[in-house]
Design goal:
- This protein has 288 residues and is α/β, with parallel strands linked by helices.
- 43% of the residues lie in helices and 14% in strands.
- It contains 13 helices and eleven strands.
- It is globular and about 50 Å long.
- It starts with a strand and ends with a helix.
- Bound molecules: zinc ion.
């Protein structure tokens, strides 16, 4: 079974607040014109032309059995929500064998964020939490977010966090993507499962260090397939972390097939590759 632990269901069946046009303006207007045009065109296309069925077709085409679909709550910094918790829950309940819904909350909203997470899991059926510190502008290590980690722990859901710099958003704060900020939380809540997204680039060795030292910390290999040669694959294997490397793409920003062929090109031992493609995620997400 192939499981992708991080995709965005950007399509016309989801909600963009306040609107696609306004969200694009708020998020990308500070890019240099050429890049802004490219991103604006792509985002507008995805949210106005694509469908859930298109996503399923792309998964089928690449042989991806299941995918975690994520919401994105950027309320404090941009006043934008790209895909809501209700959207991912609704799409997943229409395709329960294909999609696993991950809620998003904005940690800067304090108690409201905790309540929103509890609602998303208990009422909507979300099965994970997705966060983007460099864009949401919060420091993962700050103890003021402890109640959020305690809620995730109590709800028995994994926390997926963007652990990389962020090229797509011009005013993101790269320092907040540094995976070492996760360390105090991993130590404080040893049963809280945390996935470091996007291979930890450019902090891939720091990411490796966290994953090999903390049984509750995982890494996903989404995005940056063009930099796979720099990833410490063999070091994960040598330090018995083969069970904590997870397949993911960040689709539709990166493709299923491209990511799978980049992974094949690394020529990992087939047992390790199988674990990455699905066995590890099935265990993390309790999928039979
Ligand atoms: Zn993403």
């Amino acid at each position: 079974m192939i499981i992708d632990v991080h995709i965005h269901p950007f399509c016309k069946e989801v909600t963009v607040t306040p609107s696609v046009e306004e969200a694009v303006k708020r998020m990308f207007s500070r890019h240099v014109p050429k890049r802004r045009e490219m991103i604006e065109g792509m985002v507008t296309f995805l949210f106005t032309q694509r469908t859930v069925q298109d996503i399923l077709c792309d998964m089928d085409d690449a042989g991806v059995d299941k995918a975690c679909i994520v919401a994105m709550d950027l309320t404090t910094h941009y006043g934008v929500e790209l895909v809501t918790n209700e959207d991912v829950a609704r799409i997943a309940s229409a395709h329960p064998n294909r999609f696993i819904p991950f809620a998003s909350v904005d940690p800067c909203m304090g108690r409201a964020a905790v309540d929103k997470l509890v609602h998303a899991v208990q009422k909507l059926g979300c099965r994970g939490l997705k966060l983007v510190p460099p864009v949401q502008h919060f420091d993962f290590s700050d103890p003021k977010y402890n109640s959020l980690w305690e809620a995730a722990l109590e709800l028995k859901i994994p926390v997926w966090t963007h652990a990389s710099h962020q090229q797509s958003h011009p005013d993101s704060d790269a320092r907040l993507g540094n995976p070492m900020l996760v360390e105090p939380v991993a130590l404080r809540y040893r049963d809280l499962k945390i996935v470091l997204g996007h291979c930890g680039f450019p902090w891939h060795w720091e990411t490796w260090s966290l994953v090999v030292r903390h049984p509750n910390v995982y890494v996903d290999i989404s995005a940056h397939t063009n930099l796979y040669n720099h990833l410490p694959w063999d070091a994960y294997a040598k330090y018995e972390a083969e069970d904590k490397v997870l397949f993911a793409t960040d689709y539709p920003l990166w493709g299923f097939k491209d990511t799978m062929s980049a992974l094949k090109n690394i020529n990992l031992p087939s047992e390790f590759e199988k674990k990455i493609l699905g066995i590890n995620a099935a265990r993390l997400l309790c999928i039979d």
